[in-house]
Amino acid sequence: MHASDADVHTLLGSSALFAGIPSEELTAIAGELDEQHHGAGDLVITEGTDGADFFLIVEGTGAIEVGGDRVASLGTGDFFGEVGALDQGPRTASVRATSALRSLSLPNGRLRGFLGDHPRVAVNMLHVSVRRFRVAMTSGRRTAGRGAQ
User: Fold this and answer.
1) Among 131, 112, 130, which residue's Cα sits nearest to residue 121?
2) Contact 11/76 with Cβ under 8 angstroms?
3) CA atoms of 14 and 110, how far apart (whole Å)
4) What is the four-CA torsion angle of 65, 54, 12, 25, rounded to 10 degrees?
5) pLDDT per residue over 74-129, tens digit each?
6) Separation CA 51–CA 45 (nearest Å)
7) N- or C-end of the chain: fewer Cβ atoms within 10 A?
8) Which residues contact 56 (CB under 8 A, 6 or more apart)?
9) Separation CA 24–CA 28 (nearest Å)
10) 2 pLDDT above the threshold of 60
11) pLDDT digits over 59-68, tens only?
């Protein structure tokens, strides 16, 4: 089911991923995305499995889990699945819905082509991904430092 609601257009415009994208391009982007629904507790993606779908949360919350441990929370406007969607490798984490979750997705490995068609989204994704990486690395150092004391 393709997403086309006015609220989807509004969400895209307010998401860091789509910052700076003109309104008419947001309308076109909304038509490229599929809508999905997951219940609280459902696994949306599973660590270690192959998957090329990319997701953007429209409503609800989720948890990123690595090795069964919750490492981060997700909410409206956050995205996930980009690593597997970009490199076609196994998922690096699981994402579990912690409430009813409505998301928009680019299925079947379409993320690369989508980013080529919308280069501003690619730049925005890079900025968000680098921030996430920095937080993960900093958190890891703090944890490692405590263990060494």
Assistant:
1) 112
2) yes
3) 23
4) 160
5) 999 899 999 988 888 899 999 999 999 999 999 888 999 999 999 999 999 999 98
6) 8
7) C
8) 11, 12, 15, 17, 33, 77, 78, 79, 103, 104, 105
9) 7
10) no
11) 999 999 999 9
Angle, CA of 40, 45 and 48, to the nearest 5°? 135
Q: Report which residue type is found at 95.
A: V
C-alpha 15/C-alpha 96 separation (Å) is 21
Residue position matching structure tokens 């003109």 = 22
Neighbours of 92 (CB within 10 A): 15
Please state the pTM of the whole predicted model: 0.84
DSSP state of 75: -
Query: Hey, how many other C-beta atoms are within 10 angstroms of the C-beta on 51?
Result: 19
Dist. CA 111–CA 49, nearest whole Å: 18
Separation CA 81–CA 53 (nearest Å): 6
Q: What domains appear along the chain, each with residue ranges and CATH number?
A: 6-140 (2.60.120.10)
Find how far residue 43's CA is from the centre of its chain: 14
